[in-house]
């Protein structure tokens, strides 16, 4: 499973949430985690014309995405949507996302980032991904974690996380066994 931090802003909360989430995943026997910080990937912002050489940053990230059987996208809500950096990252790839489950840990103000996650469901559906129902939503996220990056009320956040991981693992196993069958073989 790959955890993708969708924000590239300085001081982003997504890195804190992603590290905590990765720690929770590592407590399980059925998950292995790669943490992908889009801020470190430095993907180009401008798409290429057909036939242009794919930039090195895009080629470098591709094997990490391709090797994952499932994703959790850590996404903030910016202006009732998701950040452009995440849309850019999604758009650089196609096969890497196909026939794989995607879960969300979203965060923001009162809506807890849910509007961003709902819009991303449409984007990932267009790529042939299966977004899962269980979502971890953190309303007023900065108040929910302490200075050490741990949840103040760990039990409530952990329950949502376990449910999301359970569903993600189920879908990952089901889709892994069928990814080589048409229509996903291109």
Explain this structure to me?
39% of the residues lie in helices and 17% in strands. With 186 residues, it is of the alpha/beta class. Strands 2-1-3-4-5 form a 5-stranded parallel sheet. The protein is globular and about 50 Å long. The two termini are 23 Å apart. The relative contact order is 0.17.
Overview in brief:
The chain has 186 residues and is an alpha/beta fold. It has helices at residues 14-26, 38-41, 56-66, 84-91, 114-126, 154-176; strands at residues 2-5, 34-37, 71-76, 101-108, 130-139. The longest helix has 23 residues, at 154-176.
Can you lay out the helices and strands and say which pair or pack?
Layout: E1 2-5, H1 14-26, E2 34-37, H2 38-41, H3 56-66, E3 71-76, H4 84-91, E4 101-108, H5 114-126, E5 130-139, H6 154-176
Parallel strand pairs: 1-2, 1-3, 3-4, 4-5
Instruction: Give helix % range.
Output: 25-40%
Span of the ends, CA to CA: 23 Å
Structural class: alpha/beta
Q: Describe the biggest sheet?
A: 5 strands, parallel
Could you give the order of strands across the largest sheet?
2-1-3-4-5
Order of helices and strands: EHEHHEHEHEH
Cα-based radius of gyration, to the nearest Å? 16 Å
Count of helical stretches: 6
* Average pLDDT number: 92
What fraction strand? 15-25%
Q: Which descriptor suits the 3D outline?
A: globular
* Poorly predicted tracts of residues: none
The number of strands is 5
Highlighted features:
alpha/beta, globular, 186 residues, 39% helix
